[in-house]
């Protein structure tokens, strides 16, 4: 058990320590979602009347769950870049020759990224009442649990991509090609109702759609109708868990390749 637990805790703690020692990352993690949320909310406020959204919902309130998902997404991108840097600096090679399973190495990295993403997401979650998003203890705990699942899946997917790359430029190109469209087509900016048929199918097969739907459902536990026309909570949680498991299994399989 020591060969399994100790590497996980060590690598997880290393990710947290490195994050808090870099002030630029801390400032960017806090300011970027606030600025993006404010600009997008103000820009679309007058023209926001999409189908499937409860009457009286402001765009800032509608986009709030999407910005929560963006916090998780960007944290997964920036945190998994460390794998590329670790390889270039020789740290990853030192870890790989240690007598520990590759799965525990990947799990430690994924949990470190997940912890950072959830921490930032919870801090942003506290701003929900500012745009009249009801926040109770039960809903806050439920949303936090969903954030853990979504962040773990995104972090594992990022690790699966970063593990075989040796260039940060290539990593950014692939992440922008894959993860950013996943976020945009999850319902973060616009609901699935009213979009063209082909785009609706893309949104339905997008696993991020169900992660965002789970965030919306848990935010409005007391008033389910306020979450809008999104997949139900059971389906959303099931798809999110399967996505996280598949992404982690893929990351472990990639890490085991010589």
Protein architecture, described:
This protein is mostly helical and 258 residues long. The protein contains 10 helices and no strands. It has helices at residues 2-21, 23-44, 59-89, 91-96, 102-125, 137-162, 168-188, 197-205, 207-219, 233-256. The longest helix has 31 residues, at 59-89. The mean pLDDT is 80.
Structure at a glance:
The protein is mainly alpha-helical.
Topology overview:
Blueprint lengths: L1 H20 L1 H22 L14 H31 L1 H6 L5 H24 L11 H26 L5 H21 L8 H9 L1 H13 L13 H24 L2
Helix pairs in contact: 1-5, 2-3, 3-5, 3-6, 3-7, 3-9, 5-6, 5-10, 6-7, 6-9, 6-10, 7-8, 7-9, 9-10
Mean pLDDT: 80
- Percent strand equals under 5%
Please report the total strand number as a whole number.
0
Any idea how many domains?
A: 1
CA-based gyration radius: 19 Å
Separation of termini?
A: 25 Å
Q: Runs with pLDDT <50, length 5+?
A: none
Structural class: mainly alpha
The 3D shape can be described as globular
Query: Can you write the helix and strand succession as a string?
Result: HHHHHHHHHH
Helical proportion?
Answer: over 70%
Number of DSSP helices? 10
Largest sheet properties: none
């Amino acid at each position: 058990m020591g060969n399994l637990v100790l590497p996980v805790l060590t690598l997880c703690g290393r990710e947290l320590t490195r994050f808090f020692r870099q002030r630029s990352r801390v400032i960017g993690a806090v300011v970027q979602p606030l600025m993006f949320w404010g600009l997008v909310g103000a820009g679309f406020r007058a023209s926001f009347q999409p189908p499937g959204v409860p009457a009286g919902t402001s765009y800032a309130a509608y986009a709030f769950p999407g910005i929560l998902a963006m916090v998780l997404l960007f944290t997964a991108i920036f945190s998994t870049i460390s794998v590329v840097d670790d390889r270039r600096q020789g740290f990853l090679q030192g870890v790989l020759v240690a007598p520990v399973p590759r799965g525990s190495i990947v799990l430690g990295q994924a949990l470190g990224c997940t912890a950072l993403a959830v921490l930032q997401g919870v801090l942003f979650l506290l701003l929900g009442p500012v745009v009249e998003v009801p926040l109770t203890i039960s809903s806050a705990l439920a949303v936090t649990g969903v954030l853990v699942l979504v962040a773990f899946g995104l972090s594992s997917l990022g690790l699966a991509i970063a593990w075989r790359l040796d260039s940060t430029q290539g990593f950014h190109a692939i992440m922008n090609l894959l993860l950013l469209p996943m976020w945009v087509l999850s319902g973060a900016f616009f609901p699935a109702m009213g979009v063209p048929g082909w785009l609706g199918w893309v949104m339905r097969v997008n696993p991020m759609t169900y992660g965002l739907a789970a965030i919306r459902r848990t935010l409005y536990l007391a008033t389910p109708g306020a979450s809008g026309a999104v997949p139900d909570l059971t389906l959303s949680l099931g798809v999110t868990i399967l996505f996280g498991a598949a992404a982690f299994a893929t990351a472990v399989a990639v890490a085991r390749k010589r």
